[in-house]
Specification:
By secondary structure, this protein is α+β, with helices and mostly antiparallel strands. The chain has two helices and eleven strands. The protein folds into two domains: 56 residues; 95 residues, Lipocalin. The radius of gyration is 65 Å and the shape is rod-shaped. About 18% of the residues have low confidence.
Length: 213
């Protein structure tokens, strides 16, 4: 106490009350020593409190927000472009078609104007489509195509009954803007509005054609 001699706790010396320190070891008076000890303790407590508060603050910031917590989103593999596949149910399948072994049926008359009766009479099968019907001063010329695609030249003397001497029918083929039929050394060429009959390089007749029908 102030005004009371005090004993140094460190060296055991009795000191003058007015002295603030022990003359032997320079220790503080008991009151000051206690005050200093309390101050050091308080300082340590403050430092410890700040350290604990800092740890709690750091821990609180690193802790995820409860509102944002939840199951970790599953990773979805992006769909790769693939070739589109059409799936047909069993109920809509079309049964396989069995190829027919029978002879294909052809219409009675090919599309187009039928070949005239006089010329059709000499065609294989007796029918066809007329490709050209024309006449000269002496002859009647008809070009017809049968249902199987073959072309025939039919020539007949005008005003006479068909016979071996007045009528002829020959296989023909398209040539340029007309048709050509060959009978041995003789060639019958129809085209350009004319009928030309030749034997080898010799032209036997060259007549203008006039279409009929």
């Amino acid at each position: 106490m102030a005004g009371t001699p005090w004993m140094c706790a460190q060296c055991g010396a009795v000191n003058d009350p007015a002295a603030g320190r022990c003359g032997t070891c320079s220790s503080l008076a008991p009151g000051r020593a206690r005050a200093r000890a309390l101050w050091v303790l308080l300082t340590l407590m403050v430092v410890a409190g700040l350290a604990v508060g800092g740890v709690l603050l750091f821990t609180g910031r690193s802790k995820p927000d409860p509102a944002a917590s939840g199951p970790f989103p599953a990773y979805t593999t992006p769909a790769l472009p693939t070739t589109r596949t059409v799936v047909t149910t069993a109920g809509t399948l079309t049964p396989p078609v069995t190829p027919s072994t029978s002879t294909p049926t052809t219409s009675a008359t090919p599309a187009g104007k039928p070949c005239p009766g006089d010329a059709a009479h000499y065609l294989p099968g007796g029918q066809g489509t007329v490709l050209l019907a024309a006449q000269t001063v002496k002859s009647q010329v008809t070009i017809c195509r049968t249902p199987d695609g073959r072309i025939f030249y039919d020539g007949q003397a005008r005003g006479q009954t068909a016979s071996g001497d007045t009528h002829i029918v020959l296989p023909a083929e398209a040539s340029g803007d007309g048709f050509v039929a060959v009978n041995g050394d003789y060639t019958y060429k129809v085209g350009g509005g004319r009928l030309v009959v030749s034997a080898g390089s010799e032209v036997l007749s060259d007549e203008p054609l006039t279409t009929v029908g």
